[in-house]
Design brief:
- It holds the Pfam family PGG.
- It contains 31 helices and 4 strands.
- With about 725 residues, it is mainly alpha-helical.
- It has 3 domains: about 10-210, Ankyrin repeat-containing domain (Serine Threonine Protein Phosphatase 5, Tetratricopeptide repeat, Alpha Horseshoe), CATH 1.25.40; about 335-525, Ankyrin repeat-containing domain (Serine Threonine Protein Phosphatase 5, Tetratricopeptide repeat); about 540-710, Butyryl-CoA Dehydrogenase, subunit A, domain 3.
- The strands form 2 sheets. The chain has a two-stranded antiparallel ribbon with strand order 1-2. Strands 3-4 form a two-stranded antiparallel sheet.
- It is flat and about 115 Å long.
């Protein structure tokens, strides 16, 4: 059909939200109804679904049904069509520039009432109409709308959605443009309730792949924000998150099965089935749950938290269902054969130390390791040929490990324990991936798998990298949790030490294919972070030492300027006031604290700063300096407040309270601005002390009077 003239008046009315004006236009100009109103060739019915209301579309459908129309045919001539059925069919199947019918647009926009009106119309097979991408309205509903619309479509028109076996019709399963499945479409839209509904209805959907060979589980494993671990929350938000319930049970599958059984009986008895609706009129009123009960307004932040939790809960349920149905882990054991992957046995290498004087022994260990790899693994040329011929998509287990979705990792390993032994084409295990991408929770979980851990910690990949070498891969670090370059570098050093304790001691000096040890790789890749951390330490120390010097100057001068003055004997006039005692003590403490802080920061400025110093020495000095500086600021303001209260003898409690608040306002601002950094320092120091205590407890505890008792309790 050629192009039709665009009618702009109703479009302007719709853009301004004046739907009554648009309807008035069409009641007076019936011939304009079939004409497009936008450059995308949308008709009035397409626009009506954007109102999020039922009435505009309902009124337009009444106009279509009740009146006689002139409908343009393919030859652009005007054909008179009389009746109440044919016009409605013609208009409801009319498509815009993208091939979308009105029902397509209603599902995309999530207009439930419009979907209900269109499905209940006299237009048959409306659910089977496809757009230019090969998408049916059920397909678009899965990717854009809520689960209630998908559920309504299946319940209302089961004969247009499922076959005699209860599976989705092939027209709904994939779109023709890129073979994207309806299940993957729901995952991309993060409509996991819809995805779970579809999977429960047709469990064969989990096997479908797109043109790149990506399955639903592989796609889900790339979405860390779909799970609770990818949604950081504060204390208040976490408390509310835990209290909000999410409960939803789908009955679509059982209802479809009942409908199929009744249909089968009717066919066997020779009777037609009049009713094809499974009953779907009440499920919308059941939605809202506790939010509706609490009368939470739409758009409230509480609704946002509830929607997040709902998404996380259904994503977890959906992932569990996919993992239980997935059989690909049974054949993934050969994935590691595409690359070189080596596990060195203790009998095949000699014991080596990390000392520089044993470099000859290190070379011997490395040469033996390379000989073993050349025997066990294909040559580089063979490996290259294989990789060029066979392109395999990354396993969901490796993707989830890399993205930090520990729930998927845990469920896969618990359901398929042997999957933990798989390796990727570089010969790396999931423990290597967890170390590379700094996924500490997954790392801790894998450490609990004692038997597989004994093998995974001894893996050498196709480039000769051990588990410790992967710590040096700074570019893949996605697990930074601390502010400031110095604390981030400290976190890297702690991670290196933690991994070093895990691997066998004779693996520490191994060289990779580039001839570098893990320590050398780490130092090489962390040159820039080291420079940034050194610069940050210098700038922070200079700033803090300046503040400490200013505080010391102020409190030193205040010590000789007694508030209220002195008498002729040099005795302070307000020496008997309790506020004077507060002033004296706080002034002395502030002076001592500021001078101590100044000395600490000056030592940081004058001392050499090397890489290893960021592990324990520098954080310890910084926490001492920050503690004394923070304490000196607090006591300085306390001294200032006491001075004000001494000079202004007010009997009004309100005045005293306001003066106290004003005095401590700078302390509050300072605390808020530096709290996160201070807590990070405290956390680092606590971890260091905890490690030191564990290391020396065996020798220290027995010497204490209660040592034997503690050892017995352990």
């Amino acid at each position: 059909m050629g192009s039709l003239p665009i009618i702009g008046i109703p479009y302007r009315a719709a853009m301004s939200g004046n739907w009554k004006s648009m309807l008035h236009h069409y009641r007076e100009r019936v011939l304009h109804v079939p004409f497009p109103v936008t450059l995308s060739e949308d008709t009035a019915l397409h626009l009506a679904v954007y109102s999020k209301q039922e009435q505009p579309l309902k009124d337009l459908l009444e106009i279509v049904n009740d009146m006689e129309f002139l409908v343009p045919n393919e030859t652009e001539s005007l054909v008179t069509v009389t009746g109440s059925i044919l016009p409605e069919i013609e208009f409801l199947k009319r498509k815009n520039k993208f091939g979308n019918t009105v029902l397509h647009e209603a599902t995309i926009y999530g207009n439930y009432e419009a979907v209900r009106l269109l499905v209940d119309s006299n237009c048959e097979d409306l659910l089977k109409e496809t757009n230019n991408y090969g998408e049916t309205p059920l397909f678009t509903a899965a990717g854009f709308a809520e689960a209630e619309i998908v559920e309504f479509l299946i319940r209302s028109k089961p004969q247009q959605c499922v076959d005699d076996n209860g599976h989705l019709l092939s027209i709904h399963i994939k779109r023709t443009k890129d073979d994207l499945s309806i299940l993957s479409n729901a995952i991309r839209g993060q409509h996991f309730e819809t995805a779970l509904l579809l999977l429960e209805l047709d469990d064969s959907l989990h096997k479908l792949k797109d043109k790149d060979g990506v399955t639903a589980l592989q796609l889900l494993a790339q979405m860390p924000t779909a799970f609770e671990s990818g949604f950081p929350m504060g204390i208040c938000g976490r408390l509310i998150y835990c209290c909000l319930p999410v409960k939803r049970h789908h009955e679509v599958k059982s209802q479809v099965e009942t409908w199929l059984e009744e249909r089968k009986r009717d066919l066997e008895s020779g009777q037609g089935r009049n009713s094809e609706d499974l009953g779907s009129g009440s499920e919308r009123n059941q939605r809202g749950g506790i939010l509706k009960y609490l009368k939470v307004p739409k758009g409230c932040w509480l609704e946002g938290i509830w929607k997040k939790k709902k998404k996380h809960v259904f994503a977890l349920r959906f992932a569990k269902s996919l993992i239980e149905k997935d059989e690909s882990f049974e054949s993934e054991g050969e994935e590691g054969q595409e690359g070189k992957q080596t596990v060195l046995l203790s009998s095949q290498i000699t014991t080596g130390d990390q000392n520089k004087e044993e470099e000859g022994q290190t070379s011997k260990i490395t040469s033996e390791a390379k000989e073993i790899k050349n025997v066990q693994c294909p040559t580089a040329q063979t490996s290259l040929i294989k990789s060029s011929l066979t392109i395999k998509v990354e396993s969901p287990l490796f993707t989830a490990t890399r993205r930090g979705i520990e729930k998927i990792v845990e469920m896969i390993i618990k359901k398929h324990p042997h999957a933990i032994e798989n390796h990727n084409k570089e010969g790396q295990s999931i423990l290597d991936m967890a170390v590379m991408y700094r996924q500490k929770k997954i790392f801790d979980f894998l450490k609990q798998q004692k038997i597989p851990l004994a093998r995974m910690r001894r893996v050498v990949d196709s480039k000769g990298n051990t588990l410790l070498h992967h710590v040096a891969e700074k570019g893949k670090n996605s697990g930074v949790t601390k502010p400031g370059p110095a604390l981030q570098l400290q976190e890297e050093l702690q991670w290196f030490e933690q991994v070093q304790k895990l691997i066998p001691s004779n693996y520490v000096p191994l060289l990779n294919d580039e001839g570098m040890t893990a320590r050398e790789c780490f130092e090489n890749t962390h040159k820039e972070p080291l420079k940034e951390a050194q610069r940050w330490i210098k700038e922070t120390s200079q700033s803090c030492s300046t503040v400490a010097a200013l505080v010391a100057t102020v409190v030193f001068a205040a010590a000789y300027t007694v508030p209220g003055g002195s008498d002729e004997n040099g005795k302070p006039n307000f020496i008997n006031s309790p506020y004077f005692l507060i002033f004296t003590v706080s002034d002395v403490v502030s002076l001592a604290s500021s001078l101590t802080s100044l000395v600490v920061f000056l030592s940081l400025l004058t001392s050499p700063i090397e890489l290893q110093d960021f592990h324990i020495s520098l954080p310890r000095k910084l926490i001492v300096g920050f503690t004394f500086l923070f304490f000196s600021v607090i006591t300085t303001m306390l001294s200032f407040g006491a001075t004000i209260l001494i000079l202004i003898q007010s009997e009004r409690k309100l005045t005293t309270l306001l003066l106290s608040i004003a005095s401590f306002l700078p302390v509050l601002v300072f605390g808020i601005m530096q709290f996160r950094l201070y807590v990070s320092f405290m956390g680092s120091t606590y971890n260091i002390l905890k490690i030191a205590w564990k290391a020396h407890s065996s020798s220290l505890v027995p010497c204490l009077p209660w040592g034997k008792k503690l050892r017995r309790e352990d």
